[in-house]
Specification:
It is built from 17 helices and 19 strands. By secondary structure, it is an alpha+beta fold. The strands form 4 sheets. Strands 6, 10, 11, 14, 15, 16, 17, 18 and 19 form a 9-stranded mixed β-sheet that branches. A 5-stranded mixed barrel has the order 1-2-3-5-4. Helix 8 packs antiparallel against helix 10, helix 8 packs across helix 16 and helix 14 packs antiparallel against helix 15.
Length: 511
Amino acid sequence: MSQMSQPPVNENSAENLNELLQIRRDKLAALQQEGNDPFTITTATQTHHAAEIVERFEELENTDCTIAGRIMTWRDMGKANFIDIHDATGRIQVYVRMNDIGEEAFAAFKKWDIGDIVEVTGFIFRTRRGEISVHAKGIRLLSKSLLPLPDKFHGLKDTDVRYRQRYIDLIVNPEVKDTFLKRSRIITSIRRYLDENCFTEVETPILNLIAGGATARPFITHHNTLDLDMYLRIAPELYLKRLIVGGMERVYELGRNFRNEGMDVRHNPEFTMVELYEAFTDYNGMMKRAEEMIAAAAVEATGSTKVTYQGEEIDLTPPFRRLSMLDAVKQYAGIDFDSFRGDDQKALEAVKALGIEEVKDDMTWGDLLNLAFEEKVEEQLVQPTFIIDYPVEISPLTKRKPSAPHLTERFELFITRREFANAYSELNDPIDQRARLVRQAAMREKGDDEAQMLDEDFLMALEYGMPPTGGLGMGIDRLVMLLTDSSSIRDVLLFPTMKPKTVSEETEAEE
């Protein structure tokens, strides 16, 4: 029976799968008994990759080459076989003929399987049907695949399996790799932009004694030697500001943050952010940085500042729209909060009239303004929009707006109805900062485990003097989602957080 005519693996048949597993293990045992154990091979040669051969065929035709990769398809035509080899760059066809590699080597080759990893030495040519290929003069087994790949005609469609076993997803769905190659280029683009603008990349602690820099629920761990509870960082903000105090005028960190909160298509407990701080500028300077970084990343990933996301064209060409939170709520929710500024009762009545269930009687004017925005405005913000001037109550680390002290110089960037970035004119008044963190601590004592903690060392740093500073935090995962047209954050994380499968769930999957 030819490899091409083998029936696809029935993943629902444990008996069928066990038989295939045993056959492959028997083949490995036979190789080992013959002294040909592929797992003893320590290195291989790659003079060319698949994409290079295709792109440079005119100059490489009839050139000798050595390639290496995984067998993905096999067409058995007796004494001549065609196999498709996939390497890191793509697919290339290989023509394997008994007369070229020898009868003994050909007999051994015919016992190999789809999924095996091989090295092929030969020359580059074009078949009579016009396909660029490698004509094998020698072929060597480098690694034995003991598990059969999913049926190539149906691929790997189960998203749960794809996320849990990303290695299989990458093997059988080559287009998935493109998402992660683009992710790498996006991150490189952001670093390049910041480096070229005289920012210094730094590293701050991931294990923190105080969870600060954002309003979020932290993960708690325990340090045995010190016998201390510690927190995985929710944001590097307070450490980066210490560096601004110390005279490092432009700093950034690109790395993982951790928040012990919900999981959905936009949220994962660990995620990647870039945070940057620049002395002697404000939130207007941060808007410019955000626009330029995103536009540069879009060009790097897609070749244009106009991208399509889930069927909608998004124009990322700077400058982006700017709209105050007050004006946004007035425009989209029909409430003029400025007309009853500071009147908590009137604000409460207005928001209740909108039918928002999350409203609480103890909310302040600023809390209610933000709630109305979240519930009635965010869903309207498709094209890039900076929402600016947030209430003081929800912005504990932000400088007040001089012309309106009940507001702060803060913005959030919204694209495709979701937040992409958060930025401030950073609060550098240590007295005001202490008062706001004390309020946060009081909220935490009342049961709000997302409220911020009082960080005395950070407050001491501010007392030495921090220059006027702009700060920006931007989510990398959501930016990659946008620029790769991915609907779920799990599609842009190689190994997203997953609920463990129970024994009963695994049994059900096999039945």
